[in-house]
Every structure is written in structure tokens, then in C-alpha cells.
Amino acid sequence: MSGFSPPVLGRSMWYLVTALGLALLLVLGLLPVDAEIRAYLSRTVGLATTVVFLWAVLRMPRKVRPLWWCLWAFQALTVLTDNIYDYQLRTSGEVPSPGLTDVLYFSSYFFAFAGLLLLSRHRSQTSNLAAWVDAGIFTTAVIALTGSFIISPLVDNSTTLDSATMVAIGYPILDVLVLSALIRIGLGRRATSPALVLLVVAMTCFLVADLLYNIVAVSDSWSLNSPIFEVLWSGALISLTAAALAPGARSLATPTVGQSDWVSPIRLMALAGAVLTTPVLLAVALFTDRDRTAQWLSLVTVLVVLLLMWRIGILVDIVQRDVRSERELARIDGLTGLPNRRKWDEDYGHVVADCRAQPAPVTVAVLDLDHFKEFNDRFGHQQGDILLRSAADAWRSRISDADLLARYGGEEFGLCLRGLDAEAAGPVLESLRLAMPAGQTVSIGAAQIDTSESPSDGFRRADMALYQAKADGRNLVRFHENSQP
């Protein structure tokens, strides 16, 4: 966790910003709607968080600094423009549109998009076309909703598409642009940290505030002076600043490992909902008319999309089950039925880590059939295969299910004994030596893994002990001298 934690000073600042931010949001939400102090307090929050944010960015590692600079520029431009907007409103009673504030607001969106795009590129080791396609599906659904409830009313309420109307239309379009990048991050590889969570919360607050503001401005159904806007915008500024100070901020550019193109049932249902957005909106629009044919066709379209998504879900489930099966088969030795070298490499380190976490001792051993080449030359490869299978079956019956036994390669096997030190592992390994079928023998080298060494070092010592067993005449169990019972 040390790689994901800021220095003590940064962590203390994170706690302080988070606590003060929650308190200020509570105050902003409880103040009267027309209180001027609410606006002043909100602007003060913006200026203070921007300064703290800058302090955090200057302390970032060079690799992650560009994306945080973009996000800081987004916040700084937003705060600056808010203050210019308030100044123009106080001095002249109105804010010209299009004007300076629009230019600055539009610029801030592009910095937000650039920062999120950098984050997405850093966290994905590959381009991951599937995630981009999914993000496109969700974004298209958002475009349909935005066009229906915000852009269309703006156009309908204007006699001509003048510059002010075009600017008003530009805001929801830029919101969709930023949302598309945010969706792409959400559909990326699964690895979260407090910094990433707070960043997503901040951008979500910005977008929700803009969405509500645009809807209210179009419908006139709610007061634009509602405290909810100041709470959301201030909450976004506080969350974004806290994200820059939170654990994980300094390593946010580190690529994550995961299976982001694996389609879960929840993701498939969300995709189905996104795909259905446009047909449902079309059906609702058509039902306001009297054209029965169009109404019928719109309903049939929704039904067809539902059935198609259901069919796709069935196909995805079949494919993913086949992939799981293939992955399991790729990790099983076809001859002995034991885990193969790939599976050993994946699980051996985990077994050692689990034993250390308990804590419990762990012993690793390497088993090598004696004179196996001569056995094959004398009796044939078919009998050699039978010997390998028989040895694997005999050994498997003499160890615990929790132990890891794998065919490491050729006539060599790896064994990891959970909870056994060298002294307790000795009789177990001796029983495996005596269990060899067809009158054949096996040499075994073993080592108890020290808490201070890596699993690979423990395996290397066991391999050295195997060479000693071979040198001493074969058909023996030898422990590395550092763990000799």
C-alpha cells in the first residue's frame, strides 16, 4: 500500500480538505435560497481548493503530472469564470452571451476531456476496442436523451439559430464529450483507489449540475437560484482537490491489470438499456401523434431490440463459458491431469503468500524421476506415459487437497506443501519416494521457504537439493542445508 499513499503531510491535508469540504457543503445546503453569503462562500471554496490543488500537483511525480495539470486547469478556469460571471452580473446586471465567460467555460471542458483521456490511456495497457465500443453505446444513449430534453427545446424556443442559441447548445454537447471519457474510464480495467473514486465523483457532480441547470433553464420549472447547484459545483471542486491529495493520486497513471472486455450480466443489462434508449424515445414521441402504424412499428422495434439483446446475452454467456473452459484446459497437463507449468507459475507465489499471511510454514519440493530416458528407451514412450500418470496418481493420494502438485516439465514435478516445515515435510516426501510404481525411483529436493526470501529463491534452493540427491546416488530425499531437519 505504500505505493498508493501520499506522504504524511499530503494525507493530513487530504483528511482536512475532506472534513472541511463536507462541513461547507452542509452549510451551503442549509443556507436560505437568496442568501448572498452562499455565493461568496461558494466562490471562496473554489479559490481555496484551487490553491490547494495546485500545491498537490506540484508535488506529483513527473509521469502522472500531465493529467493532473489538465484537471487543475479545468478547475482553475471554472473557478475563474465563475468569479468573472459574478462580477459582470453585479456591475452590469447581465452577462453577455456569447462572451468572455463562454470562451473560458468552453476551454475548461477541453482540459477536463484531455485529463480524462490521458487517465484512460495510462490505465489501459492496450487500446481495448471493446471498451471503446461499449462507451460509444452508452454515449449515444446520452446523446439521444440530451437531444430530446435539452437541445430540441432550445431550438424550438428560438425563432432563429443565433449565436446565443448556438452557445447554449454547445454546453450540453461538451458535457456529453466529457461524459464519454468518464464512461470509458468506468468501463476500463478494474482497479480502484480513493483518488480515482473521488475523481469520478467530482466529474459526476460537475456533469449532474450542468445537466440540471440546462434542464431548468429550458423548462423554467425550477429556480436557477436553488442551493442544489452551489452544493453540486462546490462538491465537485472539493472532491477533485481531495482526489489530488488522496491515496492513489501519485500512481494514478500506473497501468492496471484486468479483463475489461469481459461482459458481466450487469454490464450487459446496462448496454441493453442504452441500446433501448433511442427506440423508447421514438415510441414515446410517436404516441403523441395519431399515426397508428408508426406507433405499432415503434413498439415492434423496441420488442425486436429486446429480443436481440437477449440473444446476444445468450451468445456472450456461451462464448465466455467456452473461454473459461479453454483457459482451464490450458493450465492442466493433458497426460497426468495435474496443473502444468503455467498453472504452477500462477499459483505457487499465491500459496506461499497465503501461508505467510496466516502465518504458517511452507515447504517446496522438486521431484525428478530417475533414469526416465533409459526407461523410455527400454519400454517405449507409451509405457513412459503410463509411468508418469501412475506416479502422479500415487503422489496425489498422499498429499492434502490444499497442497500444490504440478508437472513442471518432462519427468520433473513441483510440490508446495502448505503448513509444513522441513521436519514435518520429511515423512511426506519420503512416502512419495516409496510410492513410485513399476519399481522405478524418484529423487526429491526440498527447502523450507524462509520468510525473508522470495518464492523463486525457495524453489531455487529446492532445485539445488535435487542436484545433491542425484549426486548422492538418486532415489533419495534431500533438504537444502539452510532448512535441514
Structural class: alpha+beta
The overall pLDDT, averaged over residues, is 81
Q: Would you identify the regions where 5 or more consecutive residues have pLDDT less than 50?
A: 1-9
Beta-strand percentage? 5-15%
Output the strand order for the largest sheet.
2-3-1-4-5
Helix content: 55-70%
User: What is the string of helix and strand elements?
Assistant: HHHHHHHHHHHEHHEEHEHE
Total E-strand runs: 5
Give your account of this protein's structure:
With 485 residues, this protein is of the alpha+beta class. Helices cover 67% and strands 6% of the residues. The chain has 15 helices and five strands. It has a five-stranded mixed β-sheet, sandwiched between helices. A hairpin with a 2-residue loop joins strand 2 (404-409) and strand 3 (412-418). Helix 5 packs antiparallel against helix 6, helix 5 (129-156) runs parallel beside helix 9 (265-286) and helix 6 packs antiparallel against helix 7.
Give a short summary of the structure.
The chain is α+β, with helices and mostly antiparallel strands and 485 residues long.
Set out the fold topology.
Layout: H1 8-30, H2 36-58, H3 65-92, H4 100-123, H5 129-156, H6 163-186, H7 194-219, H8 227-245, H9 265-286, H10 292-329, H11 341-357, E1 362-369, H12 372-379, H13 381-396, E2 404-409, E3 412-418, H14 422-434, E4 442-448, H15 455-471, E5 477-479
Helix pairs in contact: 1-2, 1-8, 2-3, 2-8, 3-4, 4-6, 5-6, 5-7, 5-9, 6-7, 7-8, 9-10, 12-13
Keywords for this entry:
485 residues; alpha+beta; 15 helices; 5 strands; 67% helix; elongated; disordered N terminus
